[in-house]
Design a protein that fits this description.
The structure holds two protein chains of two kinds. Chain A is of the alpha/beta class. Chain A is built from eight helices and twelve strands. In chain A, the strands form three sheets. Chain A has a five-stranded parallel beta sheet, sandwiched between helices. In chain A, strand 6 and strand 7 form a beta hairpin. Chain A is globular, with a radius of gyration of 18 Å. Chain B is α+β, with helices and mostly antiparallel strands. In chain B, a hairpin with a 2-residue loop joins strand 1 and strand 2. Chain B has a five-stranded antiparallel beta sheet, with helices on both faces. Chain B contains 14 helices and twelve strands. In chain B, 57% of the residues lie in helices and 15% in strands. The chains are: A alpha/beta, B alpha+beta. The interface between A and B is medium-sized, with 29 and 32 residues.
Chain lengths: 237, 521
């Protein structure tokens, strides 16, 4: 990972001591500076005390729900929030994403997964102020600025809507985006509930860019939540 | 009332007419010369009017005919013959008969209309009373009693009974007045009434259509009660012992009551369904909350394990030997917690399923306490003080289960009371048994938590605000064990602050100890 001017600060919020210990071991060895909180109250205080660059937040806290913490943090904080949850409960995840969380991981997760998500979140946060990048995923190259998509060097003809969907996924490369987020971004807020339309366009898009129909490699479905573009990580440096 | 009056009138109305005309004729004869013959006719009309008012149309008609003859015989010359000399008297006679009949007819009708109105009013009042009674009743028994009492009172019946459909047969649900042995003939007639109800009529019947009333040969009234799911029962009014038949009004009243009973039974059925559904929802909610607790309990150490092990496998970091040892130590801790959680879950399942065989013997309590303390992690042991009497009480228990009880209570106190709090375990003989307590100087347990702390997966908040590392099962297991030995466990306050868990264990076996499964539900 790149070494920035100052170390990246991560606030870890989890009530389970064992999880905090494991996260500390994983993150501090990668040069991140950690703040730990076991309750919602503590988390909110520490976030104000020393604003973090990223928050890792468990949904099940003893005093208040993680979703509430998310909502409260979002009233002033722009740093990405990564949700941890033991529940395979989609409604919780969607609610957390709607309340301003940026991605989620279901426990148990591997150290590699956690680190990749954190890097993706930090990259996107940094990219918000720079020109749209060229995103690659295997042989797929998405040039957002020039509105060009190539697969194995061959240009893929996409309709404007298909390109907008892919570009939105590319801007959030490696991160989950909910169906609602895509619909609002590409079609407008009044279309936010029209999941059927989105499914049709994603299906067409996959036919054009996925090498193997039936086993998507680039646009990964997050069951019940949305989609994720499995992009390559840009080379360090 | 209506029925009784109408029977009296139907039996004695004609007699009344005869007596009235006879008496008035005698009276009039005494003063025959006081008035002109025509004036007596007017007085007879007055008598006819009175008869009509008291006894109705037909007796009034009889009275008019009798008066016609009496006037002719006694007051129109020549006296004491039915001959009439004066042709003008013929005219008077005919006019008298016509007027008499008309007066009798009209007044009688008026009277009968009034009687009907009174009867209808009584019927309506009875229905109103009954609707109010039905609406305020909560049980079928109360409703049945109210309904049958009302019928007996209003109809002047000797007895009434309600049969409800039970499976394929009718079951007697209530009878007024109560009889030690119900009359089998009544049940048989009720069955026949229901069988004679054509099936297609029952199907076509809408909810507000009246019930049918079958007046059976014996003079009783049998109304089939309908509910949306078909015939629901029979309302039976037995024939009066006096033999007086029931009026059509009575049949209508019984039919209306049968409809009300049908509505009540239907409401009750719906309520039962709703109650059952609510109970099932609650059971589902409990199941799903238990499931999420179990999954949390098992997945947390698993998540820590996965994260730590996969971290060690990442190649982007160089791991020196000391770091690897630290990670491995953490892994051992995670595995121990996972083992604890699984062990506690299994213990609780075994206790709830009564699959943990108890081997009860007499033990000195001090041995059990020592074993419980021994089971604590070494660094916690030194915080525990023991307060046992010189001659330690002897208890009849399963040793390993009670060592677990002691261990769980001590662990709980150590975890929740904070690091500075001393923890004391004590015991004394008490009444016909022994009292064991574990006491700390922590913040104590709030009143509303004193029952919930014993629930599965309930974990209070420790002083530091951090979730304690217990399984959330220790106190649930403790309560199960104590109960299965016939004892009780509860929490109380320690002054000035702290919590005291008190176990009361009666000596000797108590075979009547409640089963854990019943208690838990």
């Amino acid at each position: 990972m790149t070494v920035p001017d100052r170390p990246t600060r991560i606030l870890v919020v989890d009530d389970e001591e064992q999880i905090r210990r494991a996260l500390k071991s994983i993150l501090s060895t990668r040069g991140y500076v950690l703040e730990m909180a076991a309750t919602a109250e503590e988390a909110l205080l520490k976030a104000i005390d020393a604003p973090p660059d990223l928050v890792v937040l468990d949904l099940a806290l003893p005093d208040r729900s993680g979703i509430e913490v998310c909502r409260e943090l979002r009233t002033w904080m722009t740093a990405p929030i990564l949700i941890l949850s033991v529940r395979a409960n989609e409604t919780d995840k969607i609610q957390a994403l709607d309340e301003g969380a940026d991605d989620y991981l279901t426990k148990p997760f591997s150290a590699g997964e956690l680190l990749a998500r954190i890097r993706a979140l930090l990259r996107r946060a940094a990219a918000l102020t720079s020109p749209p990048p060229i995103v690659t995923a295997g042989e797929l190259v998405i040039d957002i600025a020039r509105r060009r998509v190539t697969h194995a060097g061959v240009e893929v003809p996409l309709t404007p809507t298909e390109f907008d969907i892919l570009a939105f996924l590319a801007r959030n490369a490696g991160l989950v985006v909910t169906q609602r987020m895509i619909l609002e971004r590409v079609w407008g807020p009044e279309w936010a509930e029209d999941a059927q339309t989105l499914r049709v366009h994603v299906s067409n898009l996959r036919k054009k860019i996925e090498p193997r129909p039936g086993g998507p490699r680039y646009i990964i479905t997050e069951p019940g939540v949305g989609f994720r573009l499995a992009a390559d990580e840009p080379p360090a440096g | 009332m209506t029925a009784r009056l109408s029977t009296i009138v139907s039996k004695h109305g004609y007699l009344l007419a005869i007596v009235a005309i006879a008496l008035s004729t005698l009276l009039f004869l005494a003063g025959r010369d006081l008035f002109a013959k025509g004036q007596w006719a007017l007085l007879y009309l007055l008598v006819i009017l009175l008869v009509a008012g008291a006894a109705g149309t037909r007796p009034a008609m009889l009275a008019s005919v009798l008066a016609f003859f009496a006037w002719n015989f006694f007051f129109l010359p020549p006296y004491h013959t039915l001959l009439v000399h004066d042709p003008k008297d013929w005219l008077s006679l005919v006019a008298f008969l016509v007027v008499g009949l008309l007066v009798g007819l009209q007044t009688g009708r008026l009277r009968e209309r009034e009687a009907r109105a009174v009867a209808r009013e009584q019927e309506t009042a009875a229905l109103n009373r009954f609707s109010a009674a039905v609406a305020s009743q909560t049980s079928t028994e109360q409703m049945t009693e109210a309904c049958l009492n009302e019928i007996v009172k209003v109809l002047g019946a000797d007895s009434a009974s309600l049969f409800v459909v039970d499976g394929n047969d009718l079951r007697l649900s209530g009878e007024t007045p109560d009889r030690a042995t119900p009359d089998p003939a009544v049940a048989e007639r009720a069955r026949r009434a229901m069988a004679s109800e054509p099936a297609q009529i029952a199907q076509e019947r809408s909810a507000d259509a009246p019930a049918t009333v079958a007046a059976v040969a014996d003079g009783g009234l049998y109304a089939v009660i309908h509910s949306p799911s078909g015939a629901a029962g029979v309302l039976a009014v037995q024939a009066r012992t006096s033999g007086a038949p029931y009026s059509p009004n009575a049949a209508r009243l019984v039919a209306s009551l049968a409809n009300l009973v049908g509505a009540f039974l239907e409401r009750e059925q719906l309520q039962a369904v709703a109650t059952k559904a609510a109970a099932e929802r609650e059971a589902d909610r409990l199941k799903s909350s238990l499931l999420s607790s179990v999954s949390h309990e098992l997945k947390t150490p698993l998540a820590a394990l996965t994260a730590t092990v996969s971290n060690l496998l990442e190649s982007d970091v160089h791991w020196d030997e000391q770091s690897v040892r630290d990670e491995l130590r953490a892994i051992v801790g995670d595995v121990a917690r996972l083992n604890n959680s699984i062990g506690a879950l299994l213990d609780l399942s075994r206790l709830e399923a009564r699959a943990w065989e108890q081997r009860r013997e007499l033990y000195e309590l001090s041995d059990i306490v020592a074993a419980g303390i021994e089971a604590l992690p070494a660094h916690l042991r030194q915080r525990v003080t023991v307060d046992l009497p010189e001659t330690t009480p002897v208890v009849d228990v399963d040793f390993s289960q009670w060592a677990r009880v002691v261990q769980n209570l001590l662990e709980n106190a150590v975890l929740y009371a904070g690091e500075d709090s001393p923890v004391t375990i004590g015991a004394r003989d008490w009444n016909d048994g022994v009292r064991i307590w574990v006491e700390d100087r922590g913040p104590g347990i709030a009143l509303e938590e004193r029952e919930t702390v014993f629930e599965k997966f309930y974990r209070g908040h420790s002083t530091s605000g951090h979730a304690p590392s217990g399984t959330g099962l220790g106190l649930a297991i403790t309560r199960e064990i104590v109960r299965s030995h016939g004892g009780t466990v509860r929490v109380e306050d320690v002054v000035p602050h702290g919590a005291r868990f008190v176990i009361a264990l009666p000596s000797g076996r108590s075979p009547a100890a409640p089963t854990p499964a019943e208690e838990m539900s």
